[in-house]
Amino acid sequence: MENCIFCKIIAGEIPSAKVYEDELVYAFLDISPINKGHVLVIPKEHHESVAAVDEATVGRMMKIGSRIGIALKRELEADAYNLHLADGTAAGQVVMHAHLHIVPRWIEDGFHWNWRQLSYADGEMAEISEKLAQRIAKKAE
Ligand code: 5GP
Ligand code: ZN
Fold first, then answer.
1. Which runs of E-coded beta strand occur in 18-94?
2. Could you tell me if 35 and 103 are in contact, meaning their C-beta atoms sit under 8 angstroms apart?
3. 29-82 pLDDT per residue, tens
4. Does domain 5-115 have CATH number 3.30.428.10?
5. pTM of the model
6. Which of 14, 17, 53, 63 could be disulfide-bonded to 8 (CB atoms 3.0-4.6 Å)?
7. What is the C-alpha to C-alpha distance for residues 44 and 135, in angstroms, rounded to an integer?
8. Domain extents for the chain?
9. Which of 38, 97, 99, 101 is catalytic?
């Protein structure tokens, strides 16, 4: 897609530090990493949302993402890695070409996810889960 920075990277119009490529996906170092070695895996076909990417390609993104995570542990001696995907602006997506982040992690690397833990009112969990289950079942029909 025109004016998409990641499509330009796939096409070689913008340079990137490539770590993997096949017929479905392309993986390269994030230019502003959370930790050094932070990789992005992207589908070769342009889609804003991962929900629009075909199942085989999403599967490949996850599979290669974990292979990259293991490579980060072996090559950079990372202690662990996070897989992160922001789908939509409110979720923190800035580049509107679907992408999976693989972030190498070290104990005491100084980075913390801002994870909070809310609680549900009585009956609220059942209400939300039932609504979601119905919606998901409709989609699968
Ligand atoms: P998002 O916030 O959309 O989940 O992540 C987009 C990521 O793309 C950011 O972490 C940002 O550093 C990275 N990024 C943006 N532009 C470029 C670029 O031109 N080259 C590379 N390698 N990474 C980029
Ligand atoms: Zn694109």
1. 18-21, 25-29, 39-43, 80-84
2. yes
3. 999 999 999 999 999 999 999 999 999 999 999 999 999 999 999 999 999 999
4. yes
5. 0.96
6. 14
7. 29
8. 5-115
9. 99
Atom from ligand 1 closest to the CA of residue 38: 10
Contact 83, 102 (CB under 8 A): yes
Contact 78, 105 (CB under 8 A): yes
113 strand-pairing partners: none
Task: Give 35 Cα–ligand 2 centroid separation in angstroms.
Answer: 24
The answer to whether 125 and 75 are in contact (CB under 8 A) is: no
Ligand 1, residue 99: give the atom nearest the CA: 4
Q: What pLDDT does residue 67 have?
A: 98
101 catalytic per annotation? no
User: What's the CA-to-centroid distance between 8 and ligand 2, angstroms?
Assistant: 7
Q: Are 76 and 70 in contact (CB under 8 A)?
A: no
